Fold this protein.
Amino acid sequence: MPEGHTIHRAARLQSAALAGAPVTASSPQGRFADGASLLDGRVLQGIEAVGKHLIYRFEDEVALHVHLGLFGRFDTHRNRVPDPRGSVRLRLAGHAATVDLRGPTTCEIIDLPDEERLMARLGPDPLRADADPERAWQRISRSRRAIGALLMDQSVLAGVGNVYRAEALHVEGLHPEREGRSLSRDEFDRLWTTIRGMLRDGERAGRIITVSAADAGVPRSRIPRGQRTYVYRQRQCRSCGAPVRAWEMAGRRAWACEQCQL
DNA sequence: AAGAATGTTATGTA
DNA sequence: CTACATAACATTCT
């Protein structure tokens, strides 16, 4: 489910619904009982998104760290709150909504040093105002690893996942196997800008939009399969019609049009 | 109903 | 020290 845009959107929406007042925290299946009781009744001060990580700041310097991983998701209930179904790790009830967290890869209470360690191992997040692209450029321009692998490395750049990797490299005409150090400064700058734009569109729309921002208001189901992405999970390149090559890279499936991407 | 999927980390190997 | 492969973990959907 989540690439960076999902996380930033969740931070914004949940901050509005939960922050500023004491929260009721529970762990319906008892899978996070200790954490939930520690959070219960505390005021949530705000939620911060960094890459694909979320940090919920509570009073008394108590913080909750959440990472959705591949399967995690949030269910937000604004009216009737249903009985928890499936594996709800944590339920947070606030003044405007109740949020269920299911299937996260990480859900833990952290202290300040933990938080600093986390921040230290994350590269710049293009969705954040404080992001410094220079840090990513330093890593990429000195690496002989493939750009397709570098983009997935959260210590190089935080927030990009498998879909944006495929789509952003396609838009920029870059082959995923190009060595990082072979990119010109100009190619890197464009790539950064494209990634940031895609993440922003995704955050605003609540889903991944890489082909046309005009699709933003259109429900995903109304967009024909072959038109949702350029190469990601496509058989043919949406730009030129050539067959899309798919192969394993950095542990995930990579997709590219070898006509358009060099 | 096996397998894939918008992810990360630890560990082993070269 | 770097790079790559593999396993492990989370859950839902086709």
User: Anything to note?
Assistant: Chain A has two domains: 4-120, 133-257. The mean pLDDT of chain A is 93. The first strand of chain A starts at residue 24 and ends at 26.
